[in-house]
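The record is passed on directly below:
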Amino acid sequence: MKQLITRVDDGLHARLKARAAGTNRSVNDLVVEALVAVLDGGENRRAVRERARAAGLLVVPEVTGPVDTRDEVIAATRDSGDAISSALDEERSAR
């Protein structure tokens, strides 16, 4: 097993200690879990949805009718030009 030494500001260290204490874990365990999550691509979609649900922030739109497939949407917008792309470019350049 290798040892990793890093510098963190006092505020981040305090937050890590508080989180570790609040979950009855070591700071090392918490940091290792965070590093693994970052290297593995972060939280998966299900975990994010569960966190949002637990916080009362999950929004699930109601489907009121049939939904077009991807191919149907592509076919419906084929040959409609670049009006949307042009409008987005114009809006972004104004910022």
Notes: The chain has a mean pLDDT of 89. The longest helix spans residues 10-22. DSSP finds five helices and no strands in the chain. Helices lie at 10-22, 27-39, 45-54, 70-77, 83-93.
